[in-house]
Amino acid sequence: MQSASSLMGVCVILLGSYAPALPAPVPQSTPATKPTPLILEKNEGERRVFRGWPGHPNPGSVFALKVDPKNGGSLHLVFGTEDLPPGETIPTHKHPGPDEILFLQTGTARVRLGDSVREVHGGATVFIPAGTWISVTNVGRDAISLAFIFSAPGFEDFMRAESVREGEKNVPVSKAEDDELQRRHSHAVIYKEP
Fold it and tell me: How do residues 32-64 score in pLDDT, each as one tens digit?
């Protein structure tokens, strides 16, 4: 009769040989520090301004990265806020890996999500499963204040690359730089061509 430990070893070997292949890991941000509890007021966090890009040369909306691998050291999620001025659009894009939640705190937006289009107002929640096309346009008279949550880090690195800290000199992204940043961060975001 075999011992329990040798039978356990055989089971582990057999199970291991039938284990399905795991998908390749998605590149993720590396935390700068050990996870740290945070309490942040509305205007606190890593405040940044989009640099502007080809076809939209003016500096874009202000956003704040509140919790991510570099702010609080989270390995599991990204949380931030953004102010979207009247008439501004978050262009059509999708995130291949993480799910996202948008929570509109104020304002009025036209949201295109997959095949549906809907006008929503302050208090609305938009759940965006990974791989779903999304765009948001401010169709109201006031800025939209929104919060965003990603189920995994990654996109915040692209956001940093296409922005500057609030108060820094803001030079628009060139077409070549934008193309290179989109290629380098395609694991985190894909924009639909106009």
Answer: 558 999 999 999 999 999 887 765 645 677 899
Length of the chain: 194
Contacts of 39 (CB under 8 A, 6+ apart): none
H, E, C per residue of the chain: CCCHHHHHHHHHHHHHHHCCCCCCCCCCCCCCCCCCCCCCCCCCCEEEEECCECCECCCCCEEEEEEECCCECCCCCEEEEEEECCCCEEEEEECCCCCEEEEECCCEEEEEECCEEEEEECCCEEEECCCCCEEEEECCCCCEEEEEEECCCCHHHHHHHCEEECCCCCCCCCHHHHHHHHHHCCCCCEECCC
Six token digits for residue 184: 């380098």
Q: Tell me the per-residue pLDDT of 68-103, one tens digit each, with 9 for 90 and over.
A: 999 999 999 999 999 999 999 999 999 999 999 999
Nearest to 78 by CA among 20, 6, 152: 152
Joined together, the tokens standing for residue 58 give: 């003016």
| Structural domains of the chain sorted by starting position, each given as residue range(s) with its CATH number in brackets | 46-191 (2.60.120.10)
How many degrees, rounded to 5, is the angle at CA 29 between CA 21 and CA 67? 120
| Amino acid residing at 155 | F
Q: CB count, 10 Å around CB of 50?
A: 21
